[in-house]
Amino acid sequence: MSGDAGAFAPDAGRGLRLVFVRGLEVRALLGVHPHEQRAPQRVRIGIEAAVEDDAAPDRVGPDRLARVVDYGRLAEAARRVATEGHVRLAETLAERIALAVLADPRVRAARVTVEKPDAFADADSVGVTVERQRRRP
Questions:
Q1: Which tens digits make up the pLDDT trace of 54-94?
Q2: N or C: which terminus of the chain has fewer CB atoms within 10 Å of its end residue's CB?
Q3: CATH class for the region spanning 5-133
Q4: What are the helix (H) ranges across the chain?
Q5: How many CA atoms lie within 13 A of 4 on its CB side?
């Protein structure tokens, strides 16, 4: 998978589905400034996971949670990583969350966005998006 825009679209031919979490808000110690190191701030997280779809291209798989990547577990992992302790860079936090998402072997690639919506009074938010892929043997 390359970093092109289509990498995170469902694709039956490639056996992929898209699992996502959008707008997850946590309070986290994130940033390089002293006030960001002392008090948690609002952090918004978005996750996109390109996941193997075992029923693609033309079937419906068993209606069982165990056969899919659970977006609840993705959100739980992001919350855990974001609240483990102080992180200086949004990039580092996004990378750590992406690696936690890739811990499920069915995830081929993860795209994670970390936003700080309260960083500037005159901006909706600031942040970063990173992408990580599973290495093929």
A1: 999 999 999 999 999 999 999 999 999 999 999 999 999 99
A2: C
A3: alpha beta
A4: 34-38, 71-82, 90-101
A5: 5
